[in-house]
Write a structure and sequence with these properties.
This protein is α/β, with parallel strands linked by helices. The chain folds into 2 domains: 79 residues, no CATH class; 232 residues, Spore Coat Polysaccharide Biosynthesis Protein SpsA, Chain A. Helices cover 34% and strands 18% of the residues.
Length: 331
């Protein structure tokens, strides 16, 4: 297994003045949360309390998790990457487990290096870039990052086959190397890197953590009405067939325990496009996995174009009923 490493930013990157922290304890949850100014943030002693704040509507980007085993300072060692922007810890969270982030890429050159750096700010983890022979040179950039950073690995695939096959190739690569926690996330900053520690922390006690837009505290940002409608309708369609045990069936920001993935018989997964997320979640449900959803704010991509097209939507319309009826025949 490659050695984990982090890209730790210099504190000179803290462009904003000193932060003022509102210390929030368990007893403070009965009162309204104070509104935050540009250079203010919440500070909590653990992840559990952070989740309670986020479920109440607090922005996860503005919460410092003040853990005594993470810092010896009596004050949270966080800074802002720019005035009024998200917080970053002085050193990334290290959960002492072998963790890998699988990043499938196709024409993501504009985002890739910045995302690799951002992941390293928040989490000690290896990164596997799975590139489907991107014509924009993403694969070449991935190789450069691999040469500069020993925790960055690259898996080149000969052609674009869809999101599902790319993730499956990455999962198989990670399972062969005995990683304990396997994370999937988009390469376009739709998923916030500062939420990575939340997923890994929660995955210490469950089999699968899904970053969810559709639980209290979750949501979407910078989406137009059409995209909101497509996403909501898609999840409602899946829930009609498979039930509402999961609120965000199509969410692609997840952390799996290795043991769950090894039980899934990944070689038989059928889905190619975004419905791949539904198929893996459904398999987890059928296996009796312990699944939880954490609220996230899903943002529209920073650079490039969305890869959600009519082919993916058509696949979903056909494959979800098949999952349901195949399950019925198996009972």
């Amino acid at each position: 297994m490659p050695g984990s490493q982090s890209i730790v930013p210099s504190l000179s990157e803290a462009l904003a003045p000193s932060l003022h922290f509102y210390r929030i304890g368990k007893h403070d949850l009965t009162a309204p949360l104070p509104k935050l100014g540009t250079d203010e943030a919440y500070a909590v002693p653990n992840f559990e309390l952070a989740e309670e704040l986020i479920a109440r509507g607090a922005d996860s980007a503005r919460i410092a998790i003040w853990m005594h085993d993470h810092t010896e300072s009596p004050y949270p060692e966080y800074f802002q990457v720019a005035t009024g922007k998200q917080l970053a810890p002085a050193s990334p969270f290290d959960f002492k487990q072998s963790t890998i982030v699988v990043l499938p890429t196709y024409n993501e050159r504009a985002n890739l290096e910045t995302l690799v750096q951002a992941i390293g700010r928040y989490l000690v983890a290896d990164i596997l870039i799975v590139d489907d022979n991107s014509p924009d040179g993403t694969g070449e950039l991935a190789d450069q990052l691999h040469r500069r950073h020993r925790h960055v690995q690259v898996l080149h695939r000969p052609r674009k086959e869809g999101l599902g096959p790319a993730y499956l190739a990455g999962f198989e690569w990670a399972l062969q190397r005995q990683y304990d926690r396997i994370i999937e996330m988009d390469c376009d900053f739709s998923h916030a890197p500062w939420d990575l520690p939340r997923l890994v922390h929660r995955c210490q006690t469950v089999d699968l953590v899904i970053g969810s837009r559709y639980v209290p505290g979750g949501g979407t940002e910078n989406w137009n009405a059409r995209r909101r409608l497509v996403s909501r309708s898609g999840n409602n369609y899946v829930s009609f067939f498979l039930g509402s045990i999961i609120h965000d069936w199509t969410g692609g920001f997840r952390c799996y325990r290795r043991e769950l993935l090894t039980r899934m018989n990944l070689s038989t997964v059928r889905a190619k496009g975004y419905i791949f997320q539904v198929e893996l979640a459904w398999r987890a449900v059928q296996l009796g996995a312990n699944i939880t959803e954490l609220p996230i704010r899903f943002s529209d991509r920073v650079h490039g174009q969305s890869k959600l097209g009519w082919q993916s939507i058509s696949e979903a319309l056909l494959e979800v009923p098949k999952m349901y009826f195949l399950d019925l025949r198996g009972r």
